[in-house]
Structures are given as C-alpha cells and as structure tokens.
Amino acid sequence: MPGLVSIIIPVHNATGFIQETINSCLQQSYSDLELILVENGSTDGSWSVIDSINDKRIRPFQLKIGNAAAARNYGFEKSRGDYIMFLDADDVLATNKIEKQIKALQKKPHGWIASCAWAKFTDNMQQAKIEEQAVWKIQSPLDWCVNALDGKGMMIPGCWLIPKSIIKKSGLWDETLTLHDDGEFMLRVLLASKGNVFVDGTVVNYRQVPGSLSRKNKNLKAAKSAYSVAKSYEEHLLKFKYSREVRRVLAKNYCQFIYEYHPKHSTLIKKAKIRLQQLNIKPLPLVGSEKFKWLTKCFGFYNSLKIVAIARTFKY
C-alpha cells in the first residue's frame, strides 16, 4: 500500500526561491505527503515566507544553530512518513515526481529506493535540459557507487525517494561535514538498499546558485571534510566488497583529493598518501585536467604535482 511521504527541506536565506520550491511540493499529483521545513539561522525573512503559507501538510520548524545536515536530521526525527525525500530549498519538482516513484517502488521488493532525472537551470526553469549520466539507471547499489566514484555521474538529493527503514539502517547525515556530505550520505543509503529503480518521465529541476559550495573551496575546513568523506567511502565500500575494482575507485578518489588540495594542507595530504599506499593500486588512476593526465603519464603522479606547484610559483 502507498504511504505517507515526508519531504524534508532545510531552509537558510532562501526568500528568492523557497515559495516556488514549496509550491512544487504542494502541487504534487501524489497528495499523501507532509512538508517539513527546517529553517536554520536565516537573516533574510525566509521564516516569514514559510509562515505565510496556509496548508495543513506543512510542518515548519526553526533551529537556532546547525548546518543543512543538522536541519535534515532534525526533519527526519520529526517525520511521520513511510518514505523520505530530502529536497534543497531552491530546487523544483515536476508535479508527477512522487507519484511515479511510489508506483515504481510498489513493483519492487521491500528495500529498494527510487531515483529520477535532474536538469540544471539558473534563472529560467524553462531552459532546464536533462543531460543523462551513465550512472543514473544502474540498479546494483555497489555498481552505482563504484561508477559514481569513477566519474560517471551523480544524483542530487531531491531525486531520491527512500523508504524510512533504509535510512534507519544506513544512519543519518554526518553533521561534521561541510563538503560532499550528500555523496557520503547516499553511498551509505545505497549500500543499505537492495537496489535503485530509475523512474523515467519526471524530473527535479536543480537551480544553480552563485556562491554555493563546490570543489573550488580549498580552505582547511573544506579539505578536512573532503578527506573525511574519502575515508568514509573507503570504510563502507571495502566492508561491502573487497575487490580490485573497489580499491581502484577509492584510490582514484584519494588521488583526486591530493590533486585538488596540493600543496596546501600537507598533513591531510600525507594521510591520504598513506591510505593510497595501503590500497595497493598500480599504476595510480589518472585524475585532473587533460594536461595533468599527460604529465602523469610522462613523469608520474607525485612528480607531476611538484611540476605544477613549481609552475604556479613562477606564475605568481
């Protein structure tokens, strides 16, 4: 039987788009849902927007402190649904998104999760285009994670519809992370599930907002988070299956970390090097730009890092 769906949205300084996001939830063709809005530390009047909407399915909460992960965890603890969806405050759902996913999950054994396509847009949602990625339609949880770490695609949080029982098994969001927390959370969820069913004919529109967290953030806080995520990937994937292919993508992830944060944050880079050695993958996977990959083929990974660092010194 279909059940209640809890849509959990962390809200922080989102007055420019939270109304549109909420509307896309309330206008779903599947009406058995609750919308849990967790406002945490906004200074732009986001709470006033939320408070002005009159719909019995909305359950608003406020947190004085905490990040988005803390808001999501708080929302989960307050949720009453059989299914959970974590949606960002600036993304917009197609009206049939939940209905299609519920129907797809009804055809699968208990323990499956559902996903769908997502499309990027900036100001005009009508210009959003779906660009399918190789990883999307993979059903095997392990294969999904391995291919995603191998650079073959990703999925934004709002695309997933997850039975609550799976999240209780996998664990909640890691509130200590400031970067890549969604990937770390979903890897655990996927490995706790029996499979992913990709649903065609619907979409989540992903708004690209200037200033959002990305790989361009190179400060120590971001580096610590990225390293912690890499360690988590290693811990959970090797526990699930110890194989050369799993070790290879984990090695690639550590190489990517070192490439992005070298030569800063030397302590973390040394730790990543040790973990790379323990994975025992030779030759090391290629990462970075095409020019850096060419350097690596000629001089090796670590020598290429030194060459790039010296070149940057002369440039500046």
Structure description:
The protein has helices at 18-26, 46-51, 68-78, 97-106, 141-149, 164-170, 181-192, 220-240, 244-261, 266-279, 290-299, 301-315; strands at 5-11, 33-40, 58-63, 83-86, 92-93, 112-121, 129-130, 162-163, 195-207. It is α/β, with parallel strands linked by helices and 316 residues long. The chain has 2 domains: 5-207, Spore Coat Polysaccharide Biosynthesis Protein SpsA, Chain A (Alpha-Beta Complex); 220-315, no CATH class. The strands form 2 sheets. It has a 5-stranded mixed β-sheet, sandwiched between helices. A hairpin with a 7-residue loop joins strand 6 and strand 7. The termini are far apart. The mean pLDDT is 94.
Could you list some keywords that capture this structure?
316 residues, Spore Coat Polysaccharide Biosynthesis Protein SpsA, Chain A
